[in-house]
Amino acid sequence: MKAKKLSAILLAFCLGTGGIAGCGTEDKGKTTEKEAESTATQEDNKDNQETEKEENKEEAPKEEKETSSIPAENGKAIIYSPNENADGYNKQEMDFEEVSPGMIIGQMVGDGTLPDSVVVQNFEEVDNEGESALRLDLSSGFGEYVQSMGTAGEDMTMGSLVNTFLDTYGVSSIEILVDGEAFSTGHSEYSGFLSRYE
User: Fold this and answer.
1) Is residue 93 part of a domain?
2) Number of separate domains in the chain
3) Do 57 and 126 reside in the same domain of the chain?
4) What string of DSSP letters covers 87-131?
5) What does each of the 198 residues of the chain score in pLDDT, given as a tens digit?
């Protein structure tokens, strides 16, 4: 009888311990599954954040900072580009609701006058000896591009840029800067205001 009681107690003890251990294992399994899901979600979120940061980095250099909105005459942009012989200019008048320096540079990139590395960093209306003038600050991509050219190519590129902004904004002079400073090439120094190229 003692043996039956002892066997029953031992059996109850084993079943109780096994049940508890089994429950504990089940809970641990559920916790592990929840932890795995949580970890996977955190990793996905981290990947998404890194992707967004990379996309923002790629877009950042193309930002345009215009300090003032200078209206173009009649919502028209007059875009100059070198002709085939590099001895004159093609002139194209374009209508837009709103003309901006970035839009103008974009048109000049599109027609091959400028490379896509050129970005407007600042644009403002300034005074030049009592007359309204423009100051256009471009990225280093512009300086590098112009410095890589021969004399004729440099003159045609500078003429296209200067004439485009003078005609579009109806002023007689413009100062072109690269990274906020005057620049020079092996052929010319560009410090101060420039007038129309013929």
Assistant:
1) yes
2) 2
3) no
4) SSEEEEEEE-SS--HHHHHHHHHHTTSS-TT--EEEEEEEEETTE
5) 555 554 545 445 444 545 444 444 444 444 444 444 444 444 444 444 444 444 443 433 344 444 445 666 568 999 999 999 989 999 999 998 889 999 999 999 999 999 999 999 999 999 999 999 999 999 999 999 999 999 999 999 999 999 999 999 999 999 999 999 999 999 999 999 999 999
Angle between helices 140-147 and 151-169 (to 10 degrees): 140
CATH assignment of the domain containing 170: 3.30.300
Q: Which of 62, 94, 110 is the last residue of a domain?
A: 62
Question: Residue 151 is encoded by which pair of tokens?
Answer: 């004399």
Please provide the DSSP assignment of 17-49 as one string.
HHHHHHHHHHHHHHHHHHHHHHHHHHHHHHHHH
Question: Phi, psi (5° rounding) for residue 143?
Answer: -60, -45
Range of the domain at 183: 73-190
Q: Which residues pair with 43 in a beta bridge?
A: none
**Residue 138 exposure: Cα atoms within 13 Å on the Cβ side:** 29
Which burial class, exposed, middle or buried, applies to 46 when counting CB atoms under 10 A from its CB (0-12, 13-18, 19+)? exposed
Pairing of strands 120-128, 131-138: antiparallel
